[in-house]
Amino acid sequence: MCPYKYYHVMKQSKDKKQWRYQMVQKAMEIGIKPTAKAFHTSPPVVRKWLKRFKQQGYAGLADQSRRPHHCPNETPTHLKEHVIELRKTYKRLGAEQIKVLEDIPLNPKTIRKIWRQAGCSSRRRPKKHKTKNNLREIKKHYALFEKMVEDTKDLFDIPEYWPQMKALNLPKVQYTHREVSCGPIFLGFANQRSLTHAHLFAVYINHFLKKFSALPRKSQRQTDNGSEYIGSWNAKRPCAYTLAIESLPGQSHHTIFPGAHRMQSDVETIHNLMELEFYEIESFTNRLNFMQKAASYQLFFNLHRPNSYKEHKSPRQLIQEKNPDFDKRLLMIPPVDLDQLLRWKHLLLSKGGNDLLTVPFNLTGPSSQPHFVRRREKAEKCGFYGKTTFPITAGL
Questions:
Q1: Domain 132-342, what fold?
Q2: For the chain, domain boundaries
Q3: Which listed residue, 31, 199, 339, 366, has the most CB atoms within 10 A of its CB?
Q4: What is the pLDDT of residues 330-366, one digit of tens each?
């Protein structure tokens, strides 16, 4: 005879089937009532487990769910099927939007539960690394210089660079141009951010793209909505920058959506890399020395630096694989000092007719005439021959 009651044994037992099996075997041997007395339980309990054992065997001695077989508040089958079909129709909308649009008399939580049970739950946002991999795969299929991005970077917020910038009159703004599919960069520098400097930089880049026949039949130059790229926000006509871009056949200027800075990720990546690899570690003696070191970094990036987000290859290697006949001299054009370029343009426009100067020479000053001649020679060397136009016919 068991000294413990059946209820207490079941409450503490980890394997209830074994204890019930002993009770069932005893009932088949001595009967139901003596077994109930021996196990300190009631005859109906012994009779229930004996019946289940005879019908289902040892597995029938396990506990069964007490869940009701019918729920009066259960969602009708036809409504469930309708909700599942709506999931297939509205692929990207959530339960709240679909409930409003289709006037469904169900709670959004219930709608999501039906989708989950049917295996058609709402589309989850992909992980960041998957999105990046997908974008990289898309960018690989762009033709060379089919997609380009431009942006500016303020340099006065870099602590290591700021003291040198103030003491040596170094550039305060960086203008960056980058090709998307293979990643080469082209740099320009100025003391301010303005539409004039952006226009000069666009003309500078356009000249070399045309000179080396690098542009495909159609290409796109993308920028943000800064005033240096679109001019006045309420302008009724395209600004000078847009006109300069679209002066080349097949090239168009596009702007990103307001606030969508991730669309500029290719050029923003360069800004971060240059801050870490250039501005924070380099020291400069003057503005010319700064331009020389910037040119060295641009050459290093375009020709040698492997990019982890582009198969650990340099832009030159990627370009060679995509277009073996590409003229690599385009990757070696130097960064441009846009302030100096603007001074040369002003010098050109200040010339009078028949090469007469608008300001007469100071014949008494020994240094005035040679200084002006030197500036004019620099302008002529760089190909500034027009009065109203601004062509660039030779590299700087």
A1: Nucleotidyltransferase; domain 5 (3.30.420)
A2: 6-61, 77-118, 132-342
A3: 199
A4: 999 999 999 999 999 888 877 655 554 444 434 334 4
